[in-house]
Specification:
The protein has about 350 residues and is α/β, with parallel strands linked by helices. It has helices spanning about 50-55, 165-170, 175-185, 200-210, 225-230, 245-250, 265-270, 295-300, 310-325, 340-350, and strands spanning about 5-10, 20-30, 35-45, 95-105, 115-120, 120, 135, 150, 155-160, 190-195, 215-220, 235-240, 255-260, 275-280, 305, 330-335, 355-360. This is NADPH:quinone reductase-like Zn-dependent oxidoreductase.
Length: about 350
């Protein structure tokens, strides 16, 4: 197969608003280094990490909710998920579905032609369980907002599924994030899980994956999106932010809160947890600054877990769930890659329920 030497790519040139993305039609096609494979990208999902990294929201100088726009002040020393500077220019995009079209010198050529989705966590091959030695695809190295991309061969996970490329591109970030949260919280069939933001990509994945574990699931979402959230299978759907959450829950006993929202409602989420309950968090799109009454925390024997870097097996388990038909994609919309700015605007504004995907 003869591969092109240039490609279309959406390139991020710095932290800021959407105008920091620049469209190129002659960007060099990368060559796979030893240990890597070259992927023809068929679809790439959007996620909050892309938005937050582009805007610099991860910086400790920012205490606002995720807006997707530029912030007045971003400390250039800590603007990424890992608290380190980002190298520009950078091609973002972690959630790829594509086909292996070339391999590095030490990779079996038999892998050429495999259909894959990405495991987004870049690990040290000699120390894969060390969370201090991890990077994120599309952050610490170029990702999938392009026609071609390279990735470590161990991060290119073969998948056998009748789902479309766009549907498969919804799983890598949202579902691995959700499964990582549920794993950290040790969710089982004995639990009742409360999911704020259930209409989002991670929220919808939390609903499905918690149900897969046999748990009872209560979803919070804006009422306009209740019909779509219902297709994911929660036991109960409540408004996004009930004025009196405890009253709205009635006799339900919440043992786990799985949250990527944070913001003004956060204290009420903690207040409804049963004694011995668990709170697991992998985001704060409504705002990172919250108020905690430590008496609630310790007198109720609560456990809090943050969840970012997931265990290597989590994404591999997702492949099994996908191939067995145990989880389904929540594809909201697709956009051409050249319209990434519009796609991110829709993603940020939550115009859609589920995941948005761009097509190179």
């Amino acid at each position: 197969m003869t591969l092109p030497t240039t490609m279309n790519a959406m390139v991020l040139t710095g932290h800021g608003d959407l105008d920091m993305y620049h469209w190129h039609t002659n960007w060099p096609v990368p060559a796979p280094a030893p240990g890597d494979v070259l992927i023809r990208v068929r679809a790439c999902g959007l996620n909050n990490t892309d938005v937050n990294t582009r805007s610099g929201w991860y910086s400790k100088t920012v205490d606002d909710a995720t807006t997707g726009g530029a912030f007045d002040e971003v400390d250039e020393t800590d603007p990424t998920w890992g608290g380190r500077p980002l190298t520009f220019p950078r091609i973002q995009g972690a959630d790829i579905c594509g086909e292996i079209v070339a391999v590095g010198s030490d990779i079996d050529p038999a892998r050429i032609g495999e259909r894959i989705i990405s495991d987004n966590w870049l690990r040290d091959p000699a120390d894969p369980d060390n969370k201090d030695k991890t990077g994120y695809y599309g952050s610490e190295r170029d990702g999938g907002y392009a026609q071609y991309t390279t990735i470590p061969a161990t991060n290119a996970l073969a998948v056998n599924s009748p789902l479309s490329d766009a549907e498969l591109a919804t799983f890598s970030c949202s579902y691995s994030t959700a499964e990582g949260m549920l794993t950290r919280a040790n969710v089982t069939a004995t639990d009742t899980v409360l999911v704020p933001g259930a209409s989002g990509g991670v929220g919808g994945a939390l609903v499905q994956l918690a149900k897969r574990r046999g748990a009872r699931v209560i979803a919070l979402a804006s009422e306009a999106k209740h019909a779509e959230v219902a297709t994911l299978g929660p036991d109960i759907i409540l408004p996004r932010a009930p004025e009196y959450l405890r009253a709205a829950l009635g006799d339900e006993k919440i043992t786990v809160v799985a949250d990527v929202v944070g913001g003004a409602q956060w204290a009420s989420l903690i207040d409804v947890l049963e004694r011995g309950g668990r709170y697991t968090c992998s985001g704060a799109i409504a705002g990172p600054m919250v108020t905690l009454d430590l008496r609630t925390f310790y007198l109720r024997d609560l456990t809090f877990t943050g969840s970012t870097v997931i265990d290597p097996q989590v994404t591999r388990n997702l492949i099994k769930y996908i191939e067995a038909g145990e989880i389904k994609p929540a594809l909201a919309a697709t956009y051409p890659l050249s319209e990434l700015r519009d796609a991110q605007s829709a993603f940020i504004a939550k115009h859609h329920t589920g995941n948005i995907v761009v097509i190179p």
